[in-house]
């Protein structure tokens, strides 16, 4: 970073410049700057969802590309993730504030062997914002953790996240176990994570693969509407 950058006063930047600066600050893992910028955008009446998608996810996309290309390494990406979480923490209560009626209950977690949780957290936040109750199991979940939770919580939906090609097959282990236990059809199973696709979702027997958090919310709503209609008809 050059000395000049130390002098930047975030509140003096226009929206476009500020978002660009947030991309840089996220890249550099500057949590306090990200938090300050999120607050500035909120003061400027940006919708929380817009800040999340345009500024934070936008910035993380750049980090992801450079990580893939070997320009950034794990320690830097961890700092970037930490800065992103700082921003998400501010937005979380605001996204949940929409006062939507209770839609259903989701248990969500990242699969065994996988510690990526930003995408999962984003899905949780968006689902809560849409009126779903969310039980977040965190990272590195073995099959028992999922099964125990969906039963104990009487969940409608099970959500699994995986960001590694080596951990995504574990989703099938969980679904196969549900089938063996005769409880597969009691739940809607949604899966997501960057390396997945629709075909994979089908192949492992999930109900749907969701590309992003917005699709997850729409898909979950559709399944819940179907479930309510079935209950009403039955
Ligand atoms: C941040 C990051 C990390 C951070 C994680 C910090 C954290 N707290 O999460 C750290 C530095 C710890 C890390 C570690 C590693 N990482 Co990493 N990481 C990333 C990175 C750059 C961004 C991921 C991210 O947060 N994206 C932003 C979020 C918002 O997007 P998302 O996760 O895709 O989630 C969205 C959707 O997928 C969907 N979604 C996600 N989950 C779910 C769940 C449900 C139910 C639904 C419906 C939807 C859904 O909705 C989300 C929101 O819209 C990616 C690059 C990439 N392109 O994804 C690599 C990446 C995933 N990592 C990678 C690797 C290799 C690793 C390491 C093995 C590196 C190493 N050598 O140690 C370790 C693995 C550790 C482990 N055991 O898990 C590779 C995976 C390659 C592969 N094909 O398997 C990637 C793709 C980078 C690369 N191209 O090389 N990583």
UniProtKB/TrEMBL annotation:
Residues 103-234 form the B12-binding domain. The keyword Membrane does not apply. Residues 9-103 form the B12-binding N-terminal domain. Its EC number is 2.1.1.13. GO terms for molecular function: cobalamin binding; metal ion binding; methionine synthase activity. One of its GO terms (biological process) is tetrahydrofolate metabolic process. One of its GO terms (cellular component) is cytosol. It comes from the Bacteria. SMART domains: B12-binding_2 (SM01018). Keywords: Cobalt, Metal-binding, Methyltransferase, Transferase. InterPro entries: Cbl-bd_cap, Cobalamin-bd, Cobalamin-bd_sf, Met_Synthase/Corrinoid, Meth_synthase_dom. PANTHER family: METHIONINE SYNTHASE. This is Methionine synthase. It comes from Pelagimonas varians.
